[in-house]
Each structure stands twice: as structure tokens, then as C-alpha cells.
Amino acid sequence: MSTEIVYEEMKAKLSNVVPDVELFYKAELVEEINRLKKEKNAVILGHNYMEPALFHTIPDYTGDSLFLSRKAAETDRDIIIFCGVRFMAETAKILNPERLVLLPSEKAGCSLAESISAQDVRDLRARFPGVPVVTYINTYADVKAESDICCTSSNATAVVESLGVDTVIFLPDEYLARNVARESGKHIIFPTLKGGEDSELDYQMIGWHGRCEVHEKFTVADIENVRSQFPEVVILAHPECSPEVVDASDFSGSTSSMINFVQDSQAPHYLMLTECAMGDNVAAANPQKDMLRLCMVRCPHMNQITLEDTLLALQKEQYVIDVPEEVRKRALRAVERMIAIG
Ligand code: 13P
Ligand code: SF4
After folding, report:
1. Pairwise CA distance, residues 22 & 39, whole Å
2. What is the pLDDT along the chain (342 residues), one digit of tens a residue?
3. CB atoms near residue 306 (< 10 Å)
4. HSE of 217, CA atoms in CB hemisphere, 13 A
5. What domains, with CATH codes, occur in the chain?
6. How far is the CA of 294 from the centre of ligand 2 (A)?
7. How far is the CA of 65 from the centre of ligand 1 (A)?
8. Whose CA is closest to atom 2 on ligand 2?
9. What residues does 100 pair with on adjacent strands?
10. How remote is the CA of residue 64 from the centroid of ligand 1, in Å?
């Protein structure tokens, strides 16, 4: 396909959110990435937070963490390029030990994944013997390896309830844990927090103090402010936001459920409390809808992934994601168990 045709296709999809001059420059990159992707028998998985000119062009699949894990589990291509962050690419590698998994940037981490170590999980298990460990997919492979089952934002409550036990350890996102505890009517404690609640209390969930550095910044005052300017706005919050922010919003769900909510409803304005690029992606797909954006909070990790680096990833086959086999095998049980329950 010629660059001219790629440019025209990009214009048709993106002209309400990306100026033509940028599309013209990026069309050449898109054309070359798609050519090399075919030549090298690669699949590109793109998280919902990718910038619009990448999100709407090169991925074979786009979606939230759960959907992309499922696609990684199903692929038969030789190379998986993950346009997302390290823990997502690691999950793809856990599911595909024989395939080459590449992450276009070495710097695409995640504050939640950084917040907990495998030793922390072992210590919690020692302190609460016999209590099953649920870990959010936003963790590294060695932490998943210490867990009984993983979850994502779209199935966290279902995973906790599927265990059919009185008490669970839920790691590492404090706010997601509080939101799940509320939804499932469970009492939660944070035993590692100094001066936190007493572990003698009648708890059913044990949490950790990790936070998403993006979602923790949204406040109820932000919501009140936007509502006073746009009284009819519908506000959607990711469950990594605080319970107070989730409460003050109209809907809470994973990145894909927020996208679906906007697609399937009619409101004068929408605001999604999440990485701002997703607002651009939804605006491009729904030009008739008014998407407000709070862009003062950005995910520095997701924003590392660019078309330029994705092209380099394909050309140089970098950066290779590896997980030691002994860790991978244990982590696989937790990931497969999650995928099996949906
Ligand atoms: P989703 O699973 O909802 O896509 O969330 C991933 C993430 O990192 C949100 O910040
Ligand atoms: Fe991690 Fe938050 Fe960025 Fe998602 S938005 S990748 S949870 S830092």
C-alpha cells in the first residue's frame, strides 16, 4: 500500500483529533511498520492508552489488559510486539515461551508493578497462612509466580468471588482493592501500613499500598469542578481511582468497558478519568460525541511507546522480554487460571 493511501486512510479515521501535518509524517512510519510486520510474521497488540495515530493504525488487536492477554494466548505468529507496558509484554511471554516478545521501549514500566516484590508476597503468605493470593495483572512475573490467581480491572470482583473463600490477599493496588471490597461487601485491612487497621478485626480482604501514579491523582474536587462547568457531563472512572472518586462518578470499569459505555450511550459530554490518550481514541471513533479531557495527568510509561520505537523494535528485534523458565511456569498457573474464569 502506498504512503499516500495510508495517509488518506489515517485522515479518514483521525482528522478530528490529529492535524494533517502529523498524519502525513506518521503515514510513512505506519506503512513501513505494517510491511515489516507482515514480512516477519508478527502480531501487534495495542493497549487502549496508545496515542491515536498508533492506536488506530498498526495493532492487529486493541483493548484492555484482559482482552490483550487472551489475544496473546491465542496467537500463532512468530513475534509479538506489545504496544503497552512491561507487565503486559511479560504476560504475553508467560503465555508464549517459544515466541519472540518485544516491547518497543525499555522505560515502559508501571508504578503498581514497581510497588511490590516477590519477597513481599512471601512475607504476607507467612503472616496469613492458607489465605489465597489474588494479584492484579499490573505486576511483574516473579510476583505473579507467588500468586494463586491473577485478575484485571475487568474481572477483579469476579475473580475474588470465584475463589469461594472467606478471606483473600489482594495485591498490590490499594484503590482497586478498596473498590472490590466495597463491591463484594468485604471488610479490608492494610497490614503493612504503619498505624493502619488492626489485623485482629474481622477482615475478609488483605490489601497492599500500591497506587497507580495516574489514577491516584484524580480528586472529587476535579469532578465537582468539571460538573459545575458542564452540568450534563457523564463521568467515567477507572477502578484504580480512589473509592471517593469512583463514588462521585457515573460509571466505573476497565478501559474497554469505559469505551463501550461511551459508544453505547448518548450524553452531551463525557469525561474519562484515565490516561488522556484514550479520550482522543474514543473521540476519533465517535466524532459526534464530545469528549472532555483532563490531560494534566499522563502515564509516563504508556507514553514511551511511539510509532518510531515500534518500527525500531521490528527492525532490530528489540527489546526482548524474557522470563526465567522456573518463574514463568509458576506465573503461568496464575494467569491461565484467570483466563479460564473470564
Ligand atoms: P485495563 O486493564 O483496564 O486496560 O487497565 C490497565 C491499566 O494499566 C490501567 O491503568
Ligand atoms: Fe501503570 Fe497507572 Fe500507567 Fe496503567 S496508567 S500503566 S496502572 S502507571
Report:
1. 26
2. 789 999 999 999 999 999 999 999 999 999 999 999 999 999 999 999 999 999 999 999 999 999 999 999 999 999 999 999 999 999 999 999 999 999 999 999 999 999 999 999 999 999 999 999 999 999 999 999 999 999 999 999 999 999 999 899 999 999 999 999 999 989 998 885 454 554 556 789 999 999 999 999 999 999 999 999 999 999 999 999 999 999 999 999 999 999 999 999 999 999 999 999 999 999 999 999 999 999 998 999 999 999 999 999 999 999 999 999 999 999 999 999 999 986
3. 18
4. 12
5. 3-109+302-316 (3.40.50.10800), 112-211+324-341 (3.40.50.10800), 215-285 (3.40.50.10800)
6. 16
7. 6
8. 212
9. 79
10. 6
